[in-house]
Amino acid sequence: MSGTTNGSVTISLDGTNQSLKLPLLAGTIGPSVADIRKLYGNLGIFTFDPGYGETASCESKITYIDGDQGVLLYRGYPIEELAEYASFIEVAYLLLSGELPNAAQLKDFDAGVRNHTMLHEQLRRFFEGFRRDAHPMAVLCGVVGALSAFYHDSLDITNPEHRRISAFRLIAKVPTIAAWTYKYAIGQPFMYPRNDLSYAENFLYMMNAVPAEPYKVNPVLAAAMDRILTLHADHEQNASTSTVRLAGSTGANPFACIAAGIASLWGPAHGGANEAVLRMLSEIGHVKAIPEFISKVKDRNSHVRLMGFGHRVYKNYDPRAKIMQRTCHEVLDELGIKDDPLLDLAVELEKIALEDDYFVSRKLYPNVDFYSGIILKAMGFPTSMFTVLFAVARTVGWISQWQEMIEDPSQRIGRPRQLYTGPTQRSYLPIEKRA
Ligand code: SDX
């Protein structure tokens, strides 16, 4: 634990003379934390925080978010600078190692990833077990989980070399599996990865090329894809990262842990939101229909949410959303799409929402998912592939967080407690005596 004690907070039980002084641990930036590890042993009580909105589950040096200021740092570097100046592979190295690579380190790391992009040939047959209309996230989750059936030489999580090779294999193979889930769904042949292409170029190549003719990746779209991957790479202890950490805390192998993260990311409240935003925009259909939709959102009984808006941590604009909006215009310009009705609708919807007290009072702003779907649709991705792309990017964040957890000497198996409100102890009643 490298947080420093920075005073204390005392909890006392009303009506008793029991109290406990809890150490306050300070990090480098951000709120201090009250160390409650001795709370139950001294006062016989737990804390209660469904959804862990106010609970630090771990110490981490990877990503820092200031939700009030709309700040996102990867290993201390602002997301705006990394999105502007760094490649995704550079960012992947930074998240994994903690420092930006020098030229030799970047070349070596990039080569390591490029040389692990192929899949074991037998993995191709896994795809044939799925229906062609299976959701790509179901296929991605299944095939990534199956990787642990193929790589027995990298399952010892206590071995740093096994952890290193597993990191390369997952970062390199998930894009191949992702692209193949799409090719399988549309009945086209799988395109093998090419070592002469960059990470983003290779992914677009495997998604769009066919064996019948040469395919040249559009450099503007490759640059946009590379930036989108950077924006989605990591995000502190979000639901899917916490899932990976919890799975990893039991000693499960990294392939199984990443498959668990993919499953968690799939939910519409999390990574599935980009797909839900497109569906929402299509359902609204026209700018004129926005007021009616907004009134539905404000009606609690409708259970309708403005997808792509709101965030557990950001109570200001998600810095990634701003960069996404700019990238949206670049991609549409490159593709010669002058007026994309979905983008026009999204911009108008955002404008109206940001002036409406319901959203302003709840500090609901666009998050990373609000514009991503529009870009991806314009680039030719089907809506069902949006969350798959999010998973491709987040794999490096999941691995970095998993690695940090495994190497943390204070790490224990994750095992939350509960507030029990069920029946008190009672005896079994023979069936003839039941009402
Ligand atoms: C991601 O955690 C991460 O870091 C995730 C992520 C990452 O990179 O890993 O950033 C990626 O998951 C982004 C979020 C994508 N999800 C969506 O866009 C789905 C729509 N948004 C929400 O469902 C919601 O905002 C959450 C789930 C993102 C956050 O929910 P919270 O923090 O639990 O907030 P809440 O549900 O307690 O809402 C507080 C209030 C409620 O109203 P009241 O009960 O106070 O009257 O705000 C309302 C909510 O009803 N509200 C919304 C809303 N989000 C919250 N109302 C309408 N539309 C919304 N989108």
Q: How are strands sequenced across the largest beta sheet? A: 1-2-3
H/E series? EEEHEEEHHHHHHHHHHHHHHHHH
Integer average pLDDT: 94
Helix content class: 40-55%
Bulk shape: globular
Extended strand count: 6
Low-confidence stretches: none
Quaternary organisation of the protein chains: single chain
- Terminus-to-terminus distance: 56 Å
Structural class: mainly alpha
| Number of helical regions | 18
Bound ligands, each once: s-citryldethia Coenzyme A
Beta-strand content estimate? 5-15%
User: What is Rg?
Assistant: 24 Å
Summarize the model shown.
This protein is mainly α. Helices cover 48% and strands 7% of the residues.
How would you describe what is shown here?
The protein is mainly alpha-helical and 435 residues long. It contains 18 helices and six strands. The chain has helices spanning 39-43, 79-85, 88-97, 103-114, 124-128, 136-146, 160-186, 199-208, 219-231, 239-248, 254-265, 273-284, 290-298, 319-334, 341-354, 357-361, 369-378, 386-406, and strands at residues 4-12, 19-26, 33-34, 63-66, 71-74, 77-78. The strands form two sheets. Strands 1-2-3 form a three-stranded antiparallel sheet. Strands 4-5-6 form a three-stranded antiparallel sheet. A hairpin with a 6-residue loop joins strand 2 (19-26) and strand 3. It is globular, with a radius of gyration of 24 Å. Residues 235, 238, 269-271, 273, 297, 305-313, 362, 364, 367-369 line the site of s-citryldethia Coenzyme A. Residues 235, 238, 269-271, 273, 297, 305-313, 362, 364, 367-369 line the site of s-citryldethia Coenzyme A (SDX).
